[in-house]
């Protein structure tokens, strides 16, 4: 199972857990499983079935937007997926 790292601002939706062990064949499948297992988090992650734009997803420290298959990138049991919200300031 892949390890999914949950940022502090979203941990209330996972019962305070900072990591989740989740099965799945691709990044998209892992994220969908996280959303299904934690519906409150799923509501924050997805809008109209699409991943929210303010979330950055990393697979083993690589931004999935720059990987060959993006969210369809295959996931191995030893992989780590990080959910990182955008932070803006001024």
Automatic annotation (TrEMBL):
Transmembrane segments annotated in the record for this chain: none
Pfam families, sorted: ThiS
PANTHER family: SULFUR CARRIER PROTEIN CYSO, SULFUR CARRIER PROTEIN SLR0821-RELATED
Designated name of the protein: ThiamineS protein
């Amino acid at each position: 199972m892949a390890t999914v790292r949950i940022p502090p601002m979203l941990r209330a939706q996972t019962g305070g857990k900072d990591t989740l062990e989740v099965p799945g064949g691709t990044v998209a499948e892992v994220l969908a499983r996280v959303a299904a297992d934690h519906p409150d988090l799923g509501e924050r992650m997805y809008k109209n079935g699409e991943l929210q734009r303010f979330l950055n997803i990393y697979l083993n420290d690589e931004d999935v937007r720059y990987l060959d298959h993006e969210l369809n990138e295959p996931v191995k049991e030893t992989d780590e997926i990080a959910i990182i919200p955008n932070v803006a300031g001024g």
